[in-house]
Amino acid sequence: MLKVTNLTKKYKNFTAVDNVSFQINKGEIVGLIGPNGAGKSTTIKSIVGLLRITSGTILINGKINDSIDAKKDFAYIPEFPKLYDNLSVWEHIEFIAQAYKIENYENQAIKYLEKYDMLDKKNKLASDLSKGMQQKVSIICNLIIDPEIFFFDEPMIGLDPKAIKETKNIFLYLKNKGKSVFISTHLLDSIEKICDTILIMKDGKIITRGSIEELKGAKKITLEDLFLEATE
Amino acid sequence: MNELKILINKDINQIKNYFREFKENKKKMLPILFYILWFIFMLNSQSETNYYSINYFKNLSFAILSVLLIISITNVYFERTSYFNMADVNFLFTAPISPKTILLYSIFKTSWKQLLAALFMFIFLSPSLISSGILFPEILLGVMGYALFIFSLEPICFIASKLGKKYNLKAIILILLLFLILPITIPMIIEKSIIKGIQSDLMNFIPLIGWSRGIFMSMFKISSNLFIFIFLQLSFILIINLYILKTASNYFEDMLSSTENKSKYIENKKRGKSKFKLKINFNKNKKISLKKNYYGSKAFHFKNKLISYRNDFHYLFGIETLGFFILGIGAIIIRNIKFYDYSLITFFTYLTIIILYIYTLFSINTNGQEELDMPFFYLIPDSNIKKIISVNQLPVERMILNSLILFIVPSIVDFKNILAYFLMFIMFNSIYIVIKFSNILIRSIFRKEVDFTLMLPIIKIFQLFLIAIPSLIGVIIASLVNNIINFDLQIIIFISIFLSNISILLIQLLLMDLIISRIEI
User: Fold this and answer.
1) What is the spatial distance between Cα B204 and Cα B97, in angstroms, rounded to a whole number?
2) pLDDT-based confidence at B332, cuts 50/70/90?
3) Alpha-carbon distance A106 to B262, whole Å?
4) For B34-62, how does the pLDDT look when each residue is reduced to its tens digit (9 = 90+)?
């Protein structure tokens, strides 16, 4: 589904991502965790083609990540989603449906709007929405694309508890549908129970990887303890 | 659906919603109405009997094109040249739409926005143009000159911004200055005069500004060079756009930080927080040690000192001080070469008025006002008046030093008027303090504005009243006093303005205390 090989991203003399390789399989949820400045956002932005990679290869469903064909196969929900101020919630959905050539999306969109308590706001302009609501709209827009793989950059920030629970359910729902989900976050408890694989990143490198059970081994510790043990 | 059609649909929806919003929120109409009324007023104020010389239009077109060029280069320097907004980054950059289509559509859209503004300018100028004997079809030539300039400028800035990410940005800016700004000086050097240089036909051969000016001026007299200028401009646009198309597949990263910067800048502007400050960071990594005895409201003064220390030579003086020194010396030098005929004291009075006018226009977004958005401003246990004074203490101290440097040289050279210079210094600072405090007062009154940029002209008119009224009262008192005691009128005016400013300051402080205690953030 996603194959990242020897990904390196340099900014002049600074190496933000250093020779990172990993793979995500169909129906797998992978969590990328790490302290601030570890290179999580740079990794995710490089994968979705917003940043030029210095070296390495990124393949999405066997296609080069920044090709138009590959873009049809993934959705990206950024850390601080910005919407078009003068478009309503529904117009955002319509626009995305047109851009991704999706037909008969209306019922699905209404279902997602209901899940996120946004149905009554579907005709509201983005400029009238709170940051949390904008985050919900961004998630909904990407859900209706229904691609093979989803990239979430810090998805829980700004969401209310109900929306966090709903987003976690969405992750599992996507997994059950055979979709892959890649989540970059530093809110460890938000992904502990849903991720199949965890990648721990520090100073641009993936320092630990495996399922939570594998990483914990025989130790009776939380993901937080595990994370602190690996990064300190 | 066709990719281009998707993008056009999105923008049509946005425009429709923009106007639909007026129906739901009538208050948003207020600034628009103001602009319409202002536009009609300005249009009517241009009597058809007004006649403007060709040189007037030569200067005007040169000034407009130069300002546009300088603004664009400044945007490249501050890395906020972008055709996109953050929503485009989130939705378009990752969508399966060709990056070339996105870019070309965005360049076209940005240029047309500018062009629309230009059309307003031409409608606005049309009575003067018509009264100067220009016919409507000829006005279209002027529009074309401007349009071609815009269509060249936008792609240049995009390329400069893109190259600036790869190579040294300062070197790119230098190249832009060398090729686009420096040649402007050639006709000035040949004509041995700035004004004659601007008005010279030689100026029309300078790339971009000149070619566009050449087309623009053909409104008055179609020269044989017109087709050369059009050919040069069109070829330039073609070449530069072909280059963009060739390299367009890989621009997302280059546009990412510029778009973020531009979005922040626009956001700040809307909230009235954008500020122009040349940050040099002289002491960026230096450990700054200041005495720690700044308690309560004085903490603001301490914080301002720290920031000032970091960005300037010293917390009391910096680049601005140097500017005032050069201004003072420069004024005397050009006086000595008989560049103007006024007396030195009159010249410095004008200079003072211009500086204060500039401060009034541009100071709404300077430091200090932003404190009102910080919760700790309200939480620090001290009186509001003390806090406001402390917030403004350092800028006032710096201005006292700056103005001292400005006035000290003429007071020595023109010693017989030393009293007048001293009073001018006092008056200058008293008005500056009124400006500073009126900024905070205005911020407190207009703090709920959704779009500060849109409201700015109304706010500025309000502020000008705030500043001008005490000075006006001062002048009236001065003329009355002058009838009673026969003393130097200029000196009486300076004293009266100073005294009336002091009284308005006290009123401002009391008002601010009242308003601030009711602010909800």
Assistant:
1) 41
2) confident
3) 34
4) 778 877 777 676 655 556 677 777 888 88
pTM: 0.74
- pLDDT class for B13, splitting at 50, 70, 90? very high
Q: Give the list of residues 6+ apart from residue B394 with CB closer than 8 angstroms, or none.
A: B301, B304, B305, B308, B315
Q: Name the residue with higher pLDDT: A80 or B477.
A: A80
A72 contacts B96? CB cut-off 8 A: yes
- Helices (H) then strands (E): counts for chain A: 8, 10
Q: Which of A137, A87, A125 is nearest to B24 (CA)?
A: A125
DSSP secondary structure code for residue A9 in this structure: E
Phi, psi (degrees; rounded to nearest 5) at A20 = -95, 135
Name the range with the highest mean pLDDT among A216-230, B129-143, B338-352, B416-430: B416-430
Instruction: Please give the structure tokens belonging to residue A41.
Output: 């956002």
Contact B10 A87 (CB under 8 A): yes
As a whole-number percent, the residues of chain B with pLDDT over 90 amount to 7
Contact A78 B6 (CB under 8 A): no
**Percent of chain A whose predicted confidence (pLDDT) is above 70:** 100
Angstrom CA distances, B465 to B293, B461, B510, stand at 39, 6, 18
Q: What is the mean pLDDT of chain A?
A: 89
Q: What is the pLDDT of residue A60?
A: 93
Q: What are the residues whose beta carbons fall under 8 Å from the beta carbon of A119, sequence distance 6 or more?
A: A110, A113
Q: Do A84 and B263 touch (CB under 8 A)?
A: no
| DSSP classification of residue A64 | E
> Which value, to the nearest 10 degrees, does the dihedral of the CA atoms of residues A47, A48, A49, A51 take?
-70
> Which ranges of chain A would DSSP assign to H, the alpha helix?
40-47, 68-71, 89-99, 106-115, 131-145, 161-176, 212-216, 223-231
The answer to whether the CB atoms of A82 and B89 lie below 8 A apart is yes
Rounded-to-integer distance, Cα A42 and Cα A34, Å: 12
Phi/psi for A209 (5° steps) reads -150, 155
Query: Does position A14 have pLDDT exceeding 70, yes or no?
Result: yes
Q: Could you give phi then psi for residue A3, rounded to 5 degrees?
A: -130, 110
| Domains by residue range for chain A, with CATH | 2-73+147-231 (3.40.50.300)
pLDDT, position B486: 65
Cβ-in-10-Å burial (0-12, 13-18, 19+) of B277 comes to exposed
Element (H, E) at A202: strand A197-202
Q: How far apart are CA A83 and CA B90, in angstroms?
A: 8
Residues B85, B483: Cα–Cα separation, whole Å: 62
- Which residues make beta-bridge pairs with A153? A184
CA distances from B165 to A13, A53, B85 (A): 14, 14, 18
CA dist A138 and B367 (Å) reads 35
| Residues of A with Cβ-Cβ distance to B28 under 8 angstroms | none
DSSP 8-state assignment for residue A13: T
Q: Tell me if B320 sits within 8 A of B405, measured CB to CB.
A: no
- Residue A1 contacts B, CB cutoff 8 Å: no
Q: Does A9 touch chain B (CB under 8 A)?
A: no
**R_g of chain A computed on alpha carbons:** 18
* The pLDDT value given to residue B280: 59
Counting Cα atoms < 13 Å in the Cβ hemisphere of B455 gives 21
CA distance B131 to chain A (A): 41
Give B387-405 as a DSSP string: HHHHHHHHHHHHHHHHHHH
ipTM: 0.83
Mean pLDDT of chain B: 80
According to the model, what pLDDT value does residue A120 have? 94
For residue B130, what pLDDT band results from cuts at 50, 70 and 90? confident
Give CB contacts under 8 A, 24+ apart, made by A172-175.
Answer: A172/A29, A174/A150, A175/A27, A175/A28, A175/A29
